[in-house]
Design a protein that fits this description.
By secondary structure, the chain is α+β, with helices and mostly antiparallel strands. Helices cover about 50% and strands about 30% of the residues. Helix 1 packs antiparallel against helix 2. The protein is elongated, with a radius of gyration of 19 Å.
Length: about 140
């Protein structure tokens, strides 16, 4: 049984983008709501509070708890933040695989595998290019 984890570079990129978005929204808030000080400060606190919650707490928990197990018989994806979820598919039930790679996906880990099977599909997110190739070969 082989164990795959999500690529941490994708976590770092998403966290940076979340904090950059909070910075842009803060700039726009200061620029256009400068005369309404209370509303401006409430919105700035809201933007950075949400950025900290998502970028520094929830995303790292999701990446730490997500793991993919590939055995000779089946593939299992364990994930979750508050409630843990397990998706499992027999390899004999897998009909075809779709690989989605975003630009610079090899460096940042934005490679996804969608395994389509009998009655459903399973998405394996944020894999490295090497892990994607290994899983594709085994399936």
């Amino acid at each position: 049984m082989r164990k795959y984890t999500l690529k941490p570079a994708a976590l770092y990129v998403m966290a940076v983008l979340i904090f950059a978005l909070a910075g842009v929204l803060t700039f726009l808030t200061v620029r256009y709501l400068g005369s309404m000080k209370i509303l401006m400060f409430v919105l700035i606190a809201l933007f950075f509070g949400l950025a900290v919650i998502f970028g520094a707490i929830l995303l790292p928990i999701y990446f730490r708890r997500s793991v993919i197990y590939l055995s000779a018989e089946d593939i299992t994806f364990h994930t979750g933040i508050i409630f843990l979820r397990r998706e499992q598919m027999k390899l004999s039930a897998a009909q075809y695989i779709t690989r989605v790679s975003l630009p610079l996906g090899n460096f940042f880990g934005f490679n996804f595998l969608v395994i389509h099977g009998l009655g459903g599909s399973m998405v394996l997110p944020f894999l490295s290019a090497k892990d994607c190739d290994e899983i594709e070969r085994q399936l």
